[in-house]
Amino acid sequence: MANTKGYVIVREEECKGCELCVEACPVDVLIMSPRLNKMGYHPSSYTGEGCTGCGICFYACPEPGALTVFKRWDLMEENERKEAILAIENGQRVKVS
Ligand code: SF4
Ligand code: SF4
Asked: 33 with 45: CB under 8 angstroms?
């Protein structure tokens, strides 16, 4: 998709399933997952296409560390993407970048 500049990673275990990010996304690329996390919430999930990197979901989310938005994922090298995903999986806070 031509507009897919951004990318969102949801740390499912930090998500409380409030849906605020889903409602806030202007291009409707976030959904609620049918999965349950350990706390019993349905976490939000990125559909994988169409994120513009606007960051609105990040600012709508009340849970620190649940969402990370990459504004120019399309310009990142594959190894940079892998490092970022690993860092987030390991619990490091990654700012909107
Ligand atoms: S960064 Fe913007 S376009 Fe991307 S998922 Fe969040 S609200 Fe939607
Ligand atoms: S706004 Fe945050 S806590 Fe609420 S569903 Fe989205 S990621 Fe989860």
From this structure: yes
